[in-house]
Every structure is written in C-alpha cells, then in structure tokens.
Design goal:
This protein is of the alpha+beta class. It has helices at residues 20-25, 40-45, 54-67, 73-87; strands at 3-14, 27-37, 93-100, 112-119. Helix 3 (54-67) crosses helix 4 (73-87).
Length: 122
C-alpha cells in the first residue's frame, strides 16, 4: 500500500527561464508534490515523528526554487525531486509538477507545466 502526502500548488516567485527578461524580471511558478510513503505507522500511533513534515517539504521547495537558477522548468523539477528524496528518507517516490503560468509563448493559454516522477534507488 502506498500513501501520499500532497503539497498543492505552492507559489514561488523566481527567475527561471531561457530568456534574459525572465532572468531579470522573474515570474510566478507553482509547484505541486505528491510524496509516496507508508503513513500507516504514523496514523495508527498518531505520532508526528513517523511522518514527513508538510512545512519542511514546502520549505525545501521554496529554497530550491528561489536560491538556484534554472533555464528550464525540467531542471527545477529534477532538483526538487532529488532534494525530497535526499532529505526525507521515508519518501519512496515523489512526483513533482512545476507550472509556469506566464510562459512567453504567443498563444492564449493558462500556462505550461512539466511533471516528473522519481523513485528512491533500492
């Protein structure tokens, strides 16, 4: 059985992108995490120490997104996935979705997004 902790659409303001204006001006991004882990021990014992802190997950995402620079959102997603798996040993897999609502393309749309899933190496 796999359980999931979800951080939904965490907003960050960062300077990622291929174009010079994106680097200079920055823009909003949304990050969603789906962290797979066994929550049964935490749930049965009502023990905070047997789960993963939502605030710590959000803090990690914010730190990576705002202190590092990526040309493409695929790079940002990879860095977040690696960070989650490195820092949170209970997480067995993570899906990271990075949304870029104001992508500089000449079409009317809500935005673009990438979504990746990474598993902990056995």
């Amino acid at each position: 059985m796999t359980d999931t902790i979800i951080i939904s659409r965490l907003a960050v303001y960062a300077h990622h992108g291929v174009h010079a204006e994106e680097e200079r001006l920055g823009q909003r991004f949304y990050v969603t995490l789906h962290c797979s882990l066994d929550l049964r021990p935490a749930g049965l014992s009502d023990d905070y120490g047997l789960s993963v802190c939502y605030g710590s997950l959000a803090e990690l995402v914010n730190e990576i997104a705002t202190t590092r620079r990526f040309r493409i959102i695929e790079g940002l997603a990879e860095a977040i996935a690696a960070g989650v798996l490195e820092k949170f040993k209970l997480v067995t897999a993570v899906t990271v979705r990075v949304e870029k609502p104001e992508a500089p393309v000449p079409f009317i749309m809500d935005g673009v997004a990438v979504e990746i899933t990474r598993l902990r190496d056995a």
